[in-house]
Each structure stands twice: as C-alpha cells, then as structure tokens.
Write a structure and sequence with these properties.
about 120 residues; five-stranded parallel sheet; 4 helices; 7 strands; about 40% helix; Sig_transdc_resp-reg_receiver; CheY-like_superfamily; phosphoprotein; Regulatory protein
Length: about 120
C-alpha cells in the first residue's frame, strides 16, 4: 500500500514513516509544505494519505480537496485540541491527535480502508 505523508514536523514525520514501513507500506514523502503537497496530491498515486492540518502556518485543506476528488482516503493529524474542528466536507473523516502512537495510526488506517471497501467516502471519528 502506498501512503502519502504530508507532515512538516521532521521527528513526527520520521516516526510516522517508521510506523508505516513496519506495517509494510511504501511511503510517499514526507512532504512538508503546502505547495509541495498540492503538487503531490495532484500527481502521486497513493492508496491513502495522512495529512497534518497545519503546514508551516498554512492549512492543508486545499491539498485534501484534491485528494478527496481523486478518491484517495484521508486521515488528518493535528497537535491542536479538538476545538479545531475539520471544515466541511471533512468533518466525518478520521483525525489523529498528536502525539499519537503506532497503534492509533494502524487503527485509523484500518477504519479508513474498511470504510473504503464498504464504499463509504467518509470514515467517521
């Protein structure tokens, strides 16, 4: 499975990459800027994308819209409290709060991919 990782914090990105590699995934990225995320979202072939909501002060949602239109399942990550809600049409998508561990990542991936197999476009929280 190819997973697009959009994350600007180096240590978080490296940890996530390790978790994904241990799960047998091929990692695309990590991508740390919105501009690069927009380009990758339009061109990379991915089975899943994990996106940090805030990339160096810019929100990732323009890239998320592209990925969603392409039918690529999404998992959002944020170090902010739940007060930061996802905008429509992403409110029902998976969200991981930082810090997160390998178990949380694998569980979120499983929920997203199960929902995709069932033909659902959102994955619930």
């Amino acid at each position: 499975m190819r997973v697009l990782v959009i994350e600007d914090e180096l240590l978080v990105a490296l940890n996530l990459e390790t978790v994904l590699l241990e799960a047998g995934c091929e990692v695309i990225g990590p991508i740390a800027s919105l501009q690069a995320a927009l380009k990758a979202s339009a061109s990379e072939e991915a089975d899943l994308a994990i996106l940090d909501i805030n990339l160096r002060g810019e929100e990732v949602f323009p890239a998320a819209h592209i990925l969603r239109e392409r039918g690529i399942p999404l998992i959002f990550c944020s170090g902010y409290s739940d007060a930061q809600t996802l905008p429509e049409p992403f409110r029902s998508f998976q969200k991981l709060g930082k810090p997160y561990g390998a178990t949380e990542v694998r569980d979120a991936m499983r929920r997203v991919l199960t929902a995709r197999e069932k033909g659902l476009t959102s994955t619930g929280s």
